[in-house]
Amino acid sequence: MSRISRRFAALREQNRTALIPYVTAGDPNPGITVGLMHAMVEAGADIIELGVPFSDPMADGPVIQRASERALAHNVSLRDVLSMVREFRAGDDDTPVILMGYLNPVEIMGYPAFAEAAADAGVDGLLTVDIPPEEAGELLAALRPKDIDPIFLLAPTSSPGRIQRICDAASGFVYYVSVKGITGSSSLDVEGVAAKLAEVRRATGLPIGVGFGIKDPDSARAVARIADAVIVGSALVNRIERLADEPEAIAPALAGQLAAMRLAMDQG
């Protein structure tokens, strides 16, 4: 059983919803990332989603695009991100870490080499938004022996057949994109999300995380009532951008945001 599966099992026993924050590795500089990861865990994060900087992040809105640009200005590579996870593991061997990004850096490294390096660093999951399950066979064959969960996205427009195909390929959890659009989109229709999640649950017993459009304690609380995980990204990355010239203030600021969301989620 992977760290991700163990974490969700423990949360189910506690009747709690997972809080999964996203930040881009190396944003605004590489030296801040590991400390920020620890601060987010202390503030209530259950799983960390760590973005791998990429020059053409097609699923991401301008906030996360600019985060990748700031990290790439420091030449942060996939191998650098793996080194950050390894450093994080020196102080935290329990919190699952998911890498989120695009296929190109993984493909360049090679699937077996990536899986070996990621497992050695302590990575638990991989979300590559631009590879569909039909084309992921070789990647899945490399990840699964290393207990690295492949995470796939579902959308409001996903058909029943598409939902089943994606759920069959996934492990750990499935990621439901709550809005039609890119990260940072503004509208969140909780009733519509709830109806779609009921459809997804008919296709899988895996936990379901919901992301895109979650910005504050109220939206986190609303999604926590219907999902197994609340995923928040752009709201955090936007705060990092505003504090880019004050890096020492970033960890306390994000910890405060996450603690408020965690409290709202737990209070229901």
CATH topology: TIM Barrel
Total domains, how many? 1
| Percent in helix | 40-55%
**Name of the CATH first level:** Alpha Beta
Q: What is the distance, rounded to the nearest whole angstrom, between the alpha carbons of the first and last residues?
A: 29 Å
Strand content: 5-15%
Question: Which assembly state applies to the chains in this document?
Answer: single chain
> Helix count, per DSSP?
12
Task: Please give the order of strands in the largest beta sheet.
Answer: 5-4-3-2-1-9-8-7-6
Structural class label: alpha/beta
Radius of gyration: 17 Å
Mean pLDDT: 94
Order of helices and strands: HEHEHHEHHEHEEHEHEHEHH
Determine the CATH superfamily.
Aldolase class I
Keywords: Amino-acid biosynthesis, Aromatic amino acid biosynthesis, Lyase, Tryptophan biosynthesis
Function: The alpha subunit is responsible for the aldol cleavage of indoleglycerol phosphate to indole and glyceraldehyde 3-phosphate.
Subunit structure: Tetramer of two alpha and two beta chains.
EC number: 4.2.1.20
